[in-house]
DNA sequence: AACAACTCCAACCGCTATTCG
DNA sequence: CCGAATAGCGGTTGGAGTTGT
């Protein structure tokens, strides 16, 4: 990419462009210990040669616990269309109704999938990747079982947005397995990288394929899935090294993070 | 196989809003 | 109240990957 470095003579060049695994680990590790906020200071204190804005974006959109990867499901598509009709380009507000999705992701989805093309009939749309096609239908059971949020336990409304939100709040929702690889990354950072090296992980990342079929049969393309898949594989190595308490570390660390998403 | 066109999306930019001293 | 710093938002860019010829 052409956005790798910049800076004037005499100043340390601030790194731009795609984040490396090592940078991700540094950022996650630092935030896990010190929390987020004051992003410019955070970037300096963590030793990241990035500006604070870049760190904040990386954390919020990709590293933050609860961020979901993978295709937008038909249920989510319906929510986006519905909310955009009333809210317009208020991506952050729309994202608030889609747990785990970011404004950036929704914005990209809208521009590339919806804005460019007319709405396809529901029965011709791609099958969902992770969320069940009947997500709104299962939302009733979800709302009945939800206990971690007062809003989730309230009776839900009739809109696709509300149905989908309540479905997402369902305890032990398998859809939340999407968080797995992020958990492993965070946990790896929390345990001080266990017995593996980030550079080794980078080597493996570079050799990963660009198109991968997830365990549920959903084909995910591009950079994200292979990248995090590899992170998960590396973290499996941590399990072998520190198998006794690895998942305890994961769960404990996850529980300490101040994000409501972490309660899914 | 090689190339072009297209698609996707991570990351950047500029602006506004909010917070704080 | 004011100005600087910080946070957040929406628009845009450009490179990687995919698909078509």
UniProtKB/TrEMBL annotation:
Q: Which GO terms describe its cellular component?
A: nucleus
Can you give the residue ranges of the Myb-like domain? Answer: 11-63, 64-114
Note whether Cell cycle occurs among the keywords. no
- What PROSITE patterns does this protein map onto? HTH_MYB (PS51294), MYB_LIKE (PS50090)
Establish whether keyword DNA-binding is in the entry.
yes
Recorded GO molecular functions are: DNA-binding transcription factor activity; sequence-specific DNA binding
- Domain annotation HTH myb-type: ranges: 11-67, 68-118
For bias type Low complexity, the affected ranges are: 131-155
Q: Could you tell me which residues belong to the region Disordered?
A: 118-155
Check the record and name the SMART domains matching this protein: SANT (SM00717)
Query: Keywords assigned by UniProt?
Result: DNA-binding, Nucleus, Repeat, Transcription, Transcription regulation
Which subcellular locations apply to this protein? Nucleus
What PANTHER family does its record include?
MYB TRANSCRIPTION FACTOR-RELATED-RELATED (PTHR45675), OS01G0637800 PROTEIN (PTHR45675:SF27)
How is this protein named in the record? Uncharacterized protein
Organism (species): Setaria viridis
In the record, what lineage is assigned to the organism producing the protein? Eukaryota, Viridiplantae, Streptophyta, Embryophyta, Tracheophyta
